[in-house]
Write a structure and sequence with these properties.
By secondary structure, the protein is an alpha+beta fold. It contains 19 helices and seven strands. The strands form two sheets. It has a four-stranded antiparallel β-sheet, with helices on both faces. The chain has a three-stranded antiparallel β-sheet with strand order 5-6-7. A hairpin with a 2-residue loop joins strand 6 and strand 7. Helix 14 packs across helix 15 and helix 16 packs antiparallel against helix 17. It is globular. The relative contact order is 0.10. The N terminus is likely disordered.
């Protein structure tokens, strides 16, 4: 029957009249097939292109070989994620974590984003790999969670949201509500069931990993909060979204806060309001302010101070010269990943670059000029003024493996 859907126009006709033409074929299956037409991905060992495009149903039948390359493993994970994103009930999620492709991909992502932890063979490596395996599942399910800062969204999407609604639509009142993680974890099981997860073993694993990691005062804790926030808080977020829509307001939320932009104040039980015309607001590493009808978004003073403090520690440390240049450049790349979407942050970056260059040139580069090539100069970096609009899910787009890998960084 699906063979009749080879032409998209015919397929959409079939969807409209599916009850009469194919009474036993649900629209969900047809739409999944249509999504498959878009995904022009190469076949991998043991699975032809058509089976891959059909996603999870095919992967559940064919036993995965143990000698997959990393790219082959990633392709299998991507196809499974696409199938998960189109489902609303999940009775056996634990079996994904047991697949060879899932384990291999988790190990590869851990090695890529946590190289020092892996090289030192720290005990947390196994815990991070478990987090990644669960993350790969929950990220696909977060397609059903509206307005969340999903892995495929970056700081440019946050800036775009502010440019479109705070500046373009004059919604200059910002309501902020902070999530209560203690209370959220107590109700994690109910939240998981509300998201369509019927696998008790998977829910127990999520409870164990969340309780053991979200309060860690390290990057691992931040990473865990990023993973479990859509599972823990999606019910509250949907209720806030429903109320915001009734007031013609917009929601954005992450692992720390729910944010609503509105033209006027409205009553809420908790949280607080900020008038962006009268006051500035620190959001992640940004300071936001509306001045003379212009939206100003620049790097916060606290963020710049933390950057300088980190660079001072590196320069004054006992590590080798090359390591100092590399780690300093790593921090400056992080600064650029936030600043490049904000025109008003450019003077700050130029000033920060002068400060860093004085520190490095005086102590390091003056005596080791061959290290200039390793140094990341933010003045020469590109800037991105594109207006990014939030999409429901880039999982359903034709993406490359390189794009997909970037989504799984532990940092925002």
């Amino acid at each position: 029957m699906l063979g009749k859907c080879k032409e998209k126009r015919k397929a959409f006709d079939l969807i409209r009249g599916e009850k009469n033409v194919f009474p036993d074929l649900t629209s969900k299956i047809i739409r999944r097939y249509l999504y498959g037409i878009r995904f022009k991905t190469p076949s991998v060992q043991g699975l032809d292109t058509h089976s891959m495009l059909m996603g999870c149903s095919a992967l559940g039948i064919i036993k995965e070989p143990s000698d997959l390359t990393v790219n082959q493993a990633i392709m299998r994970v991507i196809q499974a994620q696409r199938a998960l994103a189109l489902r609303y009930k999940h009775s056996d999620l634990l079996q994904y974590l047991e697949r060879a492709s899932w384990m291999q991909t988790a190990e590869a992502l851990t090695a890529h984003f946590w190289p020092r932890t892996v090289n030192k063979d720290l005990y947390v490596v196994g815990e991070i790999q478990k987090l990644y395996k669960v993350h790969l599942v929950l990220a696909a399910l977060s397609v059903q969670v509206p307005a969340y800062w999903t892995p495929w969204r970056h700081a440019g999407h946050l800036v775009g949201w502010l440019r479109i609604y705070a500046y373009g639509q004059k919604k200059q009142k910002l309501w902020v509500y902070e999530w209560d993680w203690d209370q959220g974890l107590k109700e994690l099981t109910k939240s998981a069931e509300a998201l369509g997860i019927k696998d008790a073993s998977f829910i127990d694993l999520c409870c164990e990993l969340a309780e053991g990691n979200v309060f860690a005062p390290t990057l691992r804790g931040k990473f865990a909060r990023k993973i479990f926030a859509p599972l823990v808080f999606h019910r509250e977020a949907k209720e806030i979204l429903r109320h915001a829509k009734s007031k013609k307001s917009l929601l954005w939320w992450d692992e720390y806060n729910a944010l609503v932009l509105s033209k006027s104040y409205f009553k809420q039980i908790d949280g607080y309001w900020v008038d962006l015309v009268d006051d500035s607001y620190m959001l992640w590493n940004y300071t936001i302010k509306i001045n003379d009808k212009n939206l100003l978004i620049f790097l916060s003073d606290d963020y710049i101070r933390s950057v300088k403090s980190s660079i001072k520690e590196i320069i004054n440390s006992s590590v080798g010269v090359q390591a100092k240049v590399y780690r300093t450049s790593e921090i400056m790349r992080g600064v650029h990943s936030w600043a490049k979407y904000c025109f008003h942050a450019k003077p700050q970056c130029n000033e920060l670059e002068r400060w860093v260059w004085q520190k490095l040139n005086k102590k390091i580069l003056k005596h080791s000029k061959n290290l200039d090539a390793l140094y990341f100069n933010i003045r020469n970096a590109s800037w991105d003024n594109f207006l990014y609009v939030r999409k429901k899910s880039m999982l359903l787009d034709d993406i490359s493996i390189e794009q997909w890998v970037k989504w799984w960084t532990p940092r925002r």
